[in-house]
Amino acid sequence: MTRWPALLLAFACQAHAAPLHFDLPRLDGDGQLRLNQFRGQAVVLNFWASNCLPCIQELPVLHAYAASQPRQRVIGIAVDTRPAAQAYLRRHPASYPQALSSPALLPTFGNQIKGLPYTVIVNSQHRICTRRLGPVDAAWLAKAVAACGGP
């Protein structure tokens, strides 16, 4: 029998050889959101979907963290349809930038099974420092960001 705690994988990994990047359409405004906009900074990337209950449950944690740590970059990446993600964000505004992606981006950031929610912290060279499949909590987020060179 598989239980949620067993699925809440937290794993450290070695940095990828090359810096990661993306260029995604914004959900919360016009234009694109590019990882290289945040050169030299650790960034929290949270992949979510509007129909993912654990994603919805962790949003307040990420929202509170981003609001309390304005120097730390946090980016939400909806793996969803534009209408569904935008409707969700209208009901539950986030305090950090939001972009739209397809599930195809997930393996690039170490999520071969494409499960959600999925949080990745990249270091200042934009290499994966740590990642977690399943919802994050405030304690994990604070420790992981600190370990990856965030403020």
Automatic annotation (TrEMBL):
Thioredoxin domain segment(s): 13-150
Protein's UniProt name: Redoxin domain-containing protein
Domain of life of the native organism: Bacteria
Keyword terms, alphabetized: Signal
MF (Gene Ontology): antioxidant activity; oxidoreductase activity
Signal peptide: 1-17
